[in-house]
């Protein structure tokens, strides 16, 4: 397929879903259309993966591999808001505090969440989200 814009693919999916619902209202068969949506879902996944390969490569190319060090509570809270680290021992240390990971970890965490959200946008209403692995 030549479509590489996820937003356009979401729009097309939405239009096909509306068409399926309209056809069902008239009692007409919709057999080939769900298969088309499933094939589009596979292509949508490939498009997302191509996009996020670039994002992850950029993160790795530009990231520091040193542990994140914060100087005050505001910086600490900023890291914790981005990445839900469960490190009680860090909470009691005086500033400056060092996290046991680099800036890559929260950056990748945020992008993985964005990838999942993007895929869930497409799979909504298709019954593809839970059983697909």
UniProtKB/TrEMBL annotation:
Coiled-coil positions: none
Protein's GO biological process: Golgi to plasma membrane transport; intracellular protein transport; vesicle tethering involved in exocytosis
Residue ranges constituting the Exocyst complex subunit EXOC6/Sec15 C-terminal domain according to the UniProt record: 33-125
GO cellular component: exocyst; membrane
Name the record gives this protein: Exocyst complex subunit EXOC6/Sec15 C-terminal domain-containing protein
């Amino acid at each position: 397929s030549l479509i590489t814009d996820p937003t356009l693919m979401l729009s097309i999916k939405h239009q096909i879903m509306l068409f399926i619902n309209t056809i069902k209202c008239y009692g007409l068969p919709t057999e080939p259309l769900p298969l088309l949506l499933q094939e589009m879902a596979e292509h949508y996944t490939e498009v997302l993966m191509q996009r996020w390969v670039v994002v992850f490569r950029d993160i790795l190319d530009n990231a520091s591999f040193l542990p994140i060090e914060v100087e005050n509570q505001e910086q600490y809270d900023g890291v914790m808001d981005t990445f839900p680290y469960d490190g009680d021992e860090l909470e009691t240390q005086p500033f400056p505090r060092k996290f046991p990971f680099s800036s890559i970890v929260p950056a990748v965490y945020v992008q993985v969440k964005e990838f999942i959200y993007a895929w869930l946008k497409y799979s909504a209403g298709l019954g593809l989200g839970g059983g697909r692995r």
